[in-house]
From TrEMBL:
Domain HD-GYP positions: 160-349
Stored CDD domains: GGDEF (cd01949), HDc (cd00077)
Domain HD residue range list: 182-304
Annotated PROSITE patterns: GGDEF, HD, HD_GYP
SMART domains, per database record: GGDEF (SM00267), HDc (SM00471)
Family matches, as PANTHER family: CYCLIC DI-GMP PHOSPHODIESTERASE PA4108 (PTHR43155:SF2), CYCLIC DI-GMP PHOSPHODIESTERASE PA4108-RELATED (PTHR43155)
Domain of life: Bacteria
Domain GGDEF: 39-170
Classification via Gene3D superfamilies: 3.30.70.270, Hypothetical protein af1432
Protein name per its UniProtKB record: Diguanylate cyclase (GGDEF) domain-containing protein/HDIG domain-containing protein
Amino acid sequence: MIFQNKKNSYLGFHDQLTGLYNRRFYEEELKRLDTKSNLPLTIAMGDVNGLKLVNDSFGHAMGDELLRKVTKAIENSCRADDIIARLGGDEFVIILPKTTGFEAKMVIKRIWERAAKEKVSSLNVSISFGYATKMNEKENIQEIFKKAEDHMYKHKVYESSSTRSTTVDLIINTLYEKNNREMLHSNRVSKLCEDIATKMNFDKDDINKIRTAGLMHDIGKIGITESILNKSQKLTNDEWTEMKRHPEIGYRILSSVHEFSEIADYVLEHQERWDGKGYPRGLKGAKISIQARIIAIADSFDAMTTHRAYGTILSEEEAIDEIKRCSSAQFDPTIARIFIEKVLGKEWK
């Protein structure tokens, strides 16, 4: 009974994943420490960069490992009297009694230095921090907390963007390591998209965007089980439902990075059909972005002629016949014709 009470007491004040104090304990402790004898009293707010992206792309187990690495860096950098708590999600807070802003900055510097030595898989550990200091009794401690939070978010705007961009590169590399066929396919689709856009007189900037979109169109497959990706037989209904999630996963990954936000829309729509029977949103005709319509043709042609998870690889002529047959149903008929006549140099009979 005594043991159970101790266990319940521990769980009541600690975060289960990291072992740090939780929000409940932090709030109680902040009230206790908010006294004249502890001035200057500094609050430091920390936020783990890229946690949601890691969870979406690699799964929550890797996200949990990232949080544990952050915890280790913070614990090994703080002093005995500092109070460290996880507020929830990706947010951490440190109460630093009798600590000036300069001294708090030195503690944060130590955390950053230790975090820089940590990795989760191939991903660097990155934390954005902000801090504020209560110098006299008249100041409201909650206003100090708000200042620390605002200071942290100013840092996070840049730091998190940089981390997300690096994480997207890692996701692409991880997907290609997982499935070499996907790398070759994406490179070929990228080149076909560039060729189609060139023949459609896109400007240089838009050609670069469609080339990049072609390269990243299947990035969402990082969230699909490897056994489904590499299955040589026809997918079951449940497996097909799982596979159809990849445009939305890709969209979430890319839309988190400002430089890829426009491309994210093309990736989301590349499995839509001209007749409105595609996925995930059932868009029809010109409601599908022209870039996504280009990717759809390039993706399908390459899949038919170079690799098939199951079924026979088609000859170029057979694939052309298939694109013609599906024109006005699966594919934009205008782009299909441009692809066959101007990119492949074949007649539209």
